[in-house]
Amino acid sequence: MTRKDRTEGIYSRREVLDESERRQYYQIQIKDLLSYAYRYSEDVKKRFDRAQFQASKFRTLSDLKHIPILKKKELIFLQSMGPRLGGLLTKDMGELRRIFLSPGPIFDPEDREEDYWGWTEGFYAGGFRAGDLVQVTFNYHLTPAGLMFEEPLKNLGCAVMPAGPGNSATQLEIMQKLRTTGYVGTPSYLMHLAQKGEEMGLNLRKDLYMEVAFVTGEKFSEKLRSSLEKKFDIIMRQGYGTADVGCIGYECFHKTGLHIANRAYVEICHPDTGIPLKDGEVGEVVVTAFNKTYPLIRLATGDLSYIERAPCPCGRTSPRLGAIVGRVDTTARIKGLFVYPHQVEQVITRFEEIKRWQIEVTNPGGIDEMNLVIEASNFKREEDLLHKFREKIKLRPNLTVVAPGTLPPQIRPIEDKRKWD
């Protein structure tokens, strides 16, 4: 398959709607969603009633600002409030296809409809085509990412190797023996595989057959992209989404930002007031996915970005997110997983010897590293702590034990020291 085959074409007509068609499409989708959600979701009904918002009076996109923002962190509490995930769902649990569990803990329901998570057009824009054999290195256990990305590849006519994370030597052996043409995973794990392969004496361009890669779950620097594209001789594009709502945006071949998926309406809002901001202004990404089963209307993701509307050479007319430039709160996304301070605290409180703690996140060589620093005297339960940490948070940190009083008086629970140059 030639590079031209992978870089041209549009998957869906919705990607090229003109401005008036797109506005009408958004309004029809949102009006239908609001009416349905108010009728069948107990949580949505309570939210609308408290705000004195009437779905029947929705007329224009600007009317959305009258609906209160729903913070991602609130889902942890709301889901515990009763049946149907606290009334967030519009149907019974047994009517779903799957239910996943993400760090938080937050349950992520999946309905039975085709392309539920909405990634198919993103994979097509990124260069995946029928006949590709794709190695998916996201987790297939509890969290949704593995299956979330496998289903759209099936829609495009690709075959999938459900490799999951870890076992680097085996991953490389699979790539070599099966002539894998596509990679799906985090960029840092692909860099890890590149380094491991070079240590094993592999020529990544000649001994492997990779042509295209789709990465997500981490901030992705142009320096890291350039390095990996040269090492493997591949097209490498990124997507943006969450386990709650699925696909939010994706890159095309021209790398002009993240085209907002046609399955959602995205606002950029002031993090404190929730007021929508103008194009180009940096604020919190607030998503309303057109999902009647799990209607998370105006979900604030905690990510900071801005809207770009200049024409894209690819021909897609959807607005774009310029970049994910940071986080609103103290959570951090590490190796594709959210790490919440309250979760870390739940682990630490089991060890009375620990006086204070802090997590430091770095990315030497483009690979995320998490270091847990604890203040303790004569701490003897390192392995027990690391086991419980991984059990709760799904990641194993490096551990540094320091004497009480070593950490500064005022510290952030998670100190993100990653550099993206």
How would you characterize the overall build of this protein?
With 421 residues, the chain is α/β, with parallel strands linked by helices. It has two domains: 3-20 and 98-329, 3-Layer(aba) Sandwich (Rossmann fold), CATH 3.40.50; 334-416, GMP Synthetase, Chain A, domain 3 (2-Layer Sandwich). Helix content is 28%, strand content 23%. The chain has twelve helices and 22 strands. It has helices at 3-7, 19-40, 42-50, 74-78, 83-87, 120-125, 145-155, 168-177, 187-199, 222-232, 341-348, 382-393; strands at 70-71, 98-102, 106-110, 133-136, 159-162, 182-185, 212-215, 235-242, 246-250, 258-260, 264-269, 283-289, 299-305, 307-308, 320-321, 326-327, 332-334, 337-339, 356-362, 369-375, 398-402, 414-416. The strands form five sheets. The chain has a nine-stranded mixed beta sheet with strand order 5-4-6-7-8-9-10-15-14, sandwiched between helices. Strands 1, 11, 12, 13 and 16 form a five-stranded mixed beta sheet that branches. A hairpin with a 6-residue loop joins strand 19 and strand 20. The longest helix has 22 residues, at 19-40. The model has no long low-confidence stretch (mean pLDDT 93).
Rg over CA atoms, rounded to whole Å, is: 22 Å
- C-alpha termini separation: 33 Å
Number of helices: 12
Major β-sheet profile: 9 strands, mixed
Please state the overall shape, judged from the principal axes of the Cα atoms: globular
